[in-house]
Design a protein that fits this description.
With 373 residues, the protein is an alpha/beta fold. Among the domains are: 92 residues, 2-Layer Sandwich (VC0802-like); 161 residues, Vaccinia Virus protein VP39 (Rossmann fold, 3-Layer(aba) Sandwich), CATH 3.40.50. Helix 3 packs parallel to helix 4. The longest helix is centred in the C-terminal third of the chain and has 17 residues.
Length: 373
Amino acid sequence: MSAAHECFAIVAPGLEALAVSELVNLGARVVGRETGGVSFSATSSQLYAANLHLRTVSRVIVRVARFRATAFWELEKQAKLVPWDAFVPPGGSVTLSVTSRKSKLYHQRGIAERLTEAVRQQVSGASGSDSDAAQLFLVRVDHDQVGISADSSGALLHQRGYRLDSGKAPLRETLAAAMLLGAGWDGTAPLLDPFSGSGTIPIEAAMLARRIPPGWRREFAFERWPGFDGDGWRRVKADAEERILPTAPAVIIGSDRDAGSIEAAQSNAARADVQGSVQFERRALSEVTPPAERGWLITNPPYGVRVGEADRLRDLYARLGQVLSRMPGWSAGILAADARLIGQTRLQLAEVWRGKNGGIPVRFMVSRRGVSG
């Protein structure tokens, strides 16, 4: 397999700028950006590092082939030239995710069947499968142009491996990281989340503060590729391990009024091995007190998307604003779905990014009144 790869980092729409910054920090060469992702060029080691380190990205894929096909015979001919054996080991299995738009080849199942047969012909003992160990290929047919990409990640990258216990409305790990990075929080200032739920924001904060890679406890699809460079992967991990700090530089606190959520958060923190770097407390919002003169309050309060809920939450958001009024040295980052509710805080908030959480349109808003780190 070539040492240089044409890659694409898939992100939730709205997080592209954050992904660009992460990739640049890794030394990858960013070549383009579009809604939902970032194109970049990377060596094998940089591809491995991208999967290990990227906090806001959902999946990293490698471009494999691109060609024109308007009939199945053309697809079959071109498919024989695709280097399937660079990504599928002998006896391995594959699964294909096919989309077709404004193309003569519109039958997605038929496309998948032809491509799977091409893999079988090239790779000894290969078969189609939807198992977790199967190599995923993303196939996009658009205006008769066929693009084939190999997934290098495996399970989606938000699956860090620590969150088995979730609250009623769990925040995806990549969004929690996007809140922290979007605020510019670097782990050196105290952090407080008064609606911590199952602990995703504080746990992601502890991992960031201690420089623990988000993919530290999981496996990746690229480890099963025939050309996988085991020595290179070990060097990437060894370099990452050298940077991990034994403790977080500043206090990180998550609080919630629900005892079950606190128990779940503590269990998740233990699995992430950051239990000594984050504190979880059962506490109502009105009882929250700052642990220092300056810091960041970063949180994901209830949205109130059901009919009648927004009115009931007006007092909660007003109370959040009152809590922050007693914390003059503290900056705030709030993920919000309702402009009227966020207005109840009386804070001067600026939008950093917008996206969706659980299908709900949200905006991440920041008030920089204290520290910036």
